[in-house]
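A quick aside before the break. I want you to see a complete sequence-to-structure record at least once, exactly as it would be stored in a machine-readable document. Don't worry about memorizing anything.
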Amino acid sequence: MHRTLRMRRAALVFTAIGALALTGCGDDGGSKDKPGDDAGKGGNSKPSVTLPKLDGEKISVAAVWTGPEQANFTKVLDEFEARTGATVTFVPAQDPIVNFLGTKIAGGQPPDVAMIPQVGAIQQAVAKKWAKPVGAEAKAQLSKNYAKVWQDLGAVDGTQYGVYFKAANKSLVWYNAKAFENAGASEPKTWKDFISTAETVSASGVTPVSVGGADGWTLTDWFENIYLSQAGPEKYDQLAEHEIKWTDPSVKDALTTLAELFGKPSLISGGADGALQTEFPVSVTQTFTGGDQPKGAMVFEGDFVSVNIAQTEAKIGTDAKVFPFPAVGADSPVVTGGDAAVALKDGKGAQALLTWLASTDAAKIWAEAGGFISPNKALDAAAYPNDVQRKIAEALIAAGDDVRFDMSDQAPQSFGGTPGKGEWKTLQDFLKNPKDIAGTQAKLESDAAKAWTS
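That is the input. The structure line, written in tokens, reads:
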């Protein structure tokens, strides 16, 4: 389909300045409102959004969230039920979500709303005529609460289809504070320092880096952060649009840099084979269990890591600390991702849910629960449960329209969002054999060329 509006192809690029004060912050608690109470309303103030009465109406919502994320999203849906009288059912989805939705639609049972985690997938849903435009009430909430870029990310050819409810800062390295202390290691600011720090931790007897290589998307995030910092935003935009080929020298440079880590199995928990069998949640929890002898001292990923850390005994800000992804070029990168609500059925219920998810009240519920960053600029940062998440959220909002989105999430889903295929599979192969940079580039370009012309 026609791909327009480069601003929609964006990944958040604050510099290290925008990510200041992420470390050494303790958990200061945070209230946990119950559905039907004053959740999201700032104490006893009036609700920030008016919703219709939907007594007896049944609404289904599909999302790939599981575990704590699903539980926290359910709290948001519970409050919607309390305010409207509707009954909302959560439908567990699988990646790639476009394929999952296609099966549901072919069977005559599409969900009313789907939470879609890729810009490219939203565009595909529109191209297939599955998606319904956002109604006036939800658009009013978006206009009031969101920077233009977040509205544009959910639009296709000028028509609004998506409401971005959940955002992510995907440029953070979380570390086991005790393991660092025992090794005499300090937080690195550059990639060179990062590799040096990893060697220092390794020498102390702890494997330095935990990689969730069983989930290919984590490897795309490694590449994107290095590429954005090293090649710069303009090249990033061009590669995201496939305006330059994956055989470009800038891709070679980024893969060469990544191979400085992937090419040293002793620096990765379990080596390449172990990493390829480690799913993302385990890559986090194994970093913060085992006391000062964890299976990995550091794990790279977004703010949502805090949800998985909460499943261990580690406390964010004391046992678990975080620093910005190290600068490969002049600045540390920050890449963002997000999940957008898209209506797949016409109807009052689906549109009311989009309106709710665009509101400050809905954002506040999950913000208080943790493991969540909202692109809603009207949300009071005090809603976040600790200073770490608060600072990450404030940096996201402060960036305003100066953002770029996760590169793989902008691509056609066959290339950038399908397990066992495209970029996910090729980077898994690269983790196994990081010496084959030319072969990796050739395979990436071959798959990308097919995806962009199909």
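Two observations worth writing down. Confidence is low (pLDDT under 50) at residues 1-44. The first helix runs from residue 67 to 84. We'll return to this after the break.
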